TrEMBL record:
The keyword Signal applies. It comes from Candidatus Methanoperedens nitratireducens. InterPro entries: Multihaem_cyt_sf (IPR036280), Multiheme_Cytochr_ET (IPR051829). Keywords: Signal. SUPFAM superfamilies: Multiheme cytochromes. This is Uncharacterized protein. GO terms for molecular function: oxidoreductase activity. Pfam families: Multi-haem_cyto.
Length: 432
């Protein structure tokens, strides 16, 4: 018994001695040799430094860890994971895991557009630069926590600013930062820099500091959004036969999440006012989806009649769906046809702006970049459809005439030439 106690005590002393050595060694050496100076400075400013959370607390690795490297007498990892953070912040880690940020890596790798990029080096600086928020680490935990509170300051104040979200929530297919910044909410934040009077992104999406950003989203969720599975709103034919365009949610899920969001609006607005705003956005989504549905029907028709140029079977295969027609969710922007390329812009950019703009109270994105552009794109699709069909008609007509003349191949011309020669001879004879 006593022997065992001494044994444990020795192991304990040995271990604490070792980590005390690491605590001092990491910061000590890095500071003295001037290695990673910026990191040391950031860390010194952080709450972690204040609480003696030294480099080793996150970076130390165990023997056998897949990502362990030996470093000046220590086993370390260069990529601490959420599992390391969870030792001290298990609440944030499990909330994060409940929200869609945590699935962003696997959603990305399943996408045809990801697979279609020529190589790993390019993918790393493209899709992965944003979808790393759900990065999967060597220990299988998911989530890059420094996506919002950058290393090594790890500040919650920084993460609270809308700018913390902007590197990723920007661009043609999800311009939330611009919808927001140019809305009345964004204007008030920008002019007053106070999140008390007007909401910032986190007021609506990380209520009470939750790390589950999926709370309160309904049919206005990521990517192409969702449709209510047990209610016909007429927009569900845009749902993707290949799986990743629109999600299905039930009316019950819709009500729970909508009530959650409205409870936030109702801190500043009347509930009726806010409910009306969100219902308008729902309506814009349904109507815009329907418009895009018209484009889908046209392209499917051309495919059925063999009129896409080139036809899917005559192009390099889509990395996920193969040689069949693939529009919406798994459509790629390479190896496509002109009319499908037109559709891509309507579906991926204009459609998105129309309703994501509306959910973020931005009339301009909703109308000019959104609804107006969808309608213009649809006109172009209709016009290309007519052109393709007219060309096909002309080609068919030509084939039919060719068939008619082919019955006496070359004979007509020969006869004509003969006729002319005979009449020429007659004329010459008469003259002489
Ligand atoms: C004897 C000095 C020394 C000690 C002790 C030391 N480091 Fe380093 N470390 C360095 C230097 C110098 C570099 C910079 C190497 C470079 O620029 O490529 C470095 C680089 C690193 C890197 C980046 C490695 C890479 O491949 O990208 C990490 C992470 C790191 N140190 C963490 C730690 C941790 C954690 C500890 C304590 C357990 C520690 N260091 C202890 C000197 C030291
Ligand atoms: C609170 C946890 C934490 C602490 C404490 C911490 N790091 Fe890190 N460190 C991280 C995370 C997280 C990453 C990024 C992981 C990734 O890329 O997925 C990182 C990355 C790094 C990198 C590689 C990336 C780069 O920018 O070069 C170096 C070097 C590094 N840390 C050094 C240090 C040093 C030195 C200390 C102590 C002064 C330290 N870290 C303290 C969490 C921590
Ligand atoms: C050894 C325990 C420990 C580990 C591991 C750890 N932290 Fe911390 N962290 C703390 C302590 C202690 C505080 C200060 C808490 C306070 O001030 O109430 C803190 C505070 C924070 C804060 C709030 C800072 C602020 O501005 O108030 C953030 C953000 C944070 N940690 C992120 C992380 C992330 C991300 C990781 C993993 C990469 C991590 N921490 C790993 C102990 C840890
Ligand atoms: C490093 C990139 C990155 C940063 C930074 C980032 N996000 Fe995201 N966010 C994503 C990606 C990628 C998704 C899509 C996840 C999925 O479904 O695959 C996403 C999805 C979301 C969703 C949709 C949730 C749902 O259920 O529909 C919300 C809301 C969100 N983010 C809010 C925020 C807020 C607020 C911030 C800033 C505090 C932020 N994000 C910062 C990349 C990021
Ligand atoms: C989408 C952006 C985003 C990501 C990703 C993120 N955080 Fe945060 N985090 C925040 C914001 C915003 C706050 C401040 C919330 C508040 O107090 O209103 C915060 C606060 C914290 C705090 C301080 C909590 C407190 O009450 O003082 C800790 C600890 C923390 N985060 C840990 C983590 C860990 C661990 C991860 C990775 C699993 C992570 N965060 C990923 C945005 C993010
Ligand atoms: C006033 C509240 C509010 C603010 C502020 C806000 N959002 Fe939203 N956000 C919403 C609503 C409402 C939805 C749609 C929810 C639904 O599905 O019913 C939404 C949806 C989203 C989605 C899912 C796709 C979409 O756009 O519909 C993302 C991602 C998102 N917001 C990110 C952000 C980011 C990043 C910011 C800050 C730049 C932000 N939001 C600011 C209320 C807000
Ligand atoms: C600028 C950062 C950024 C880049 C680059 C980026 N994404 Fe995204 N992606 C996001 C954000 C943010 C969301 C969620 C917001 C939304 O949809 O409104 C998202 C959503 C998605 C979704 C939908 C996820 C779901 O849960 O349904 C898929 C799939 C996706 N991206 C794949 C990719 C692929 C593949 C690439 C590269 C070809 C890529 N993304 C490039 C930021 C980015
Ligand atoms: C923190 C307080 C706050 C929250 C939360 C908030 N708002 Fe606002 N909102 C304001 C303020 C202040 C204005 C500016 C009023 C004005 O234009 O005079 C505003 C303006 C608006 C406007 C445009 C101006 C108008 O009167 O038409 C709309 C639309 C709107 N909010 C909808 C919402 C919705 C929907 C939610 C919830 C998803 C929400 N707000 C959440 C404070 C808030």
């Amino acid at each position: 018994m006593i022997k065992e106690f001494i044994g444990i005590a020795i192991v304990f002393l040995f271990l604490t001695g070792l980590s005390a050595a690491a605590e001092n060694a990491c910061v000590g050496c890095h500071a003295s040799v001037g290695a990673t100076k910026g990191i040391i400075n950031d860390w010194k400013e952080s709450k972690h430094a204040l609480n003696n959370v030294t480099c080793d607390k996150c970076h130390e690795a165990a023997q056998g860890d897949k990502d362990a490297i030996s470093h000046n007498g220590f086993l370390i990892t260069t990529t601490p994971s959420p599992k390391d953070c969870a030792n001290c912040h298990s609440t944030q880690v499990s909330q994060f895991n409940a929200g869609k940020h945590s699935i962003s890596w696997s959603k990305m790798t399943a996408a045809a557009r990801y697979k279609a990029i020529p190589n790993e080096k390019m993918r790393e600086s493209m899709c992965e630069g944003c979808h790393s928020i759900g990065k999967i680490y060597a220990d299988d935990s998911a989530g890059k926590c420094d996506s919002c509170h950058t290393r090594h300051l790890f500040s919650k104040e920084e993460a609270r600013q809308p700018e913390a979200c902007e590197t990723c929530h920007m661009g043609l297919d999800h311009e939330q930062i611009e919808y927001y910044k140019k809305s009345k909410h964004g204007m008030i934040q920008e002019t007053n820099r106070t999140s008390a009077r007007a909401p910032g992104c986190i007021t609506c999406h990380m209520d009470e500091g939750t790390h589950d950003v999926s709370q309160g989203t309904t049919i206005g969720t990521v990517s192409q959004g969702a449709f209510i599975s047990n209610k016909s709103s007429g927009n569900d034919y845009v749902k993707d036969s290949n799986g990743i365009a629109m999600r299905a949610i039930t009316q019950e899920q819709f009500d729970t999440n909508r009530n959650k969001m409205l409870s936030i609006c109702a801190r500043c607005h009347s509930r009726n006012f806010a409910q009306n705003v969100l219902e308008n956005a729902d309506e814009i989504k349904v109507q815009a989806d329907k418009k895009v549905g018209e484009g889908i029907i046209i392209i499917e028709g051309l495919n059925k009649d063999g009129l896409l140029d080139p036809m899917p079977e005559n192009r390099p295969a889509n990395p996920v769906t193969g040689n069949k027609l693939t529009i919406t969710g798994q459509q790629t922007y390479t190896n496509t046809s002109g009319i499908e390329a037109e559709f891509f812009g309507m579906f991926k950019y204009a459609l998105i702006h129309s309703w994501k703009g509306a959910y973020h109270m931005n009339p301009d994105y909703s109308h000019w970049y959104g609804w107006a552009q969808i309608n213009l794109d649809l006109e172009k699709i209709k016009s290309q459809n007519r052109t393709l069909r007219r060309i096909a008609e002309l080609e068919n007509a030509q084939k039919t005439t060719e068939k008619g003349t082919k019955a006496t191949p070359g004979f007509g011309t020969e006869l004509a030439v003969l006729g002319i020669m005979v009449s020429l001879l007659l004329v010459m004879k008469r003259r002489s």
